[in-house]
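Worked example

This section walks through a single chain of length 148. The input is the sequence exactly as stored; nothing has been trimmed or padded.
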Amino acid sequence: MNKMNFLVKNLMSKNVMSIKGDATLDIALKSLNTNSIHRLPVVDESGSITGIITDRDLRLAVDSPFLPETNDERIEKLKHHTVSSIMRPNPITIEDSAPIVDAVKLMRVSNIGGLPVVDNKGRLCGIVTRSDLLDLLIRILEPVPPQN
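Given that input, the structure is written out below as tokens.
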């Protein structure tokens, strides 16, 4: 892989799941679980990112060792609250044309596991995660031998 390919747009996942702020928290939880992901960018009608919600945010919203509730009761409560009520507004993002090293530095300094990727108009176009970066590191350190 040459250095010219070390751009966020060449590493990011393009089929990124997102959610609207007016969706209920049970829908967010279902989306995270169904797609085996840890974070959902929150977008407005134009596709611009307005926030982010993570599996940790949802756990904190429902888990309390002091409340003797069943999982069904917790899920029922999630139906009465929207994503915008617990999302983190104005998340850290990176442009798709940025070098991957910038994404790595930003994730390290901010101590986050994923970065929503935006185009030059600020619309969500992908996501780059810690797993994507580790996969790249494996490809660099353990290249596949050329096929004859």
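What to look for: The chain has a mean pLDDT of 89.
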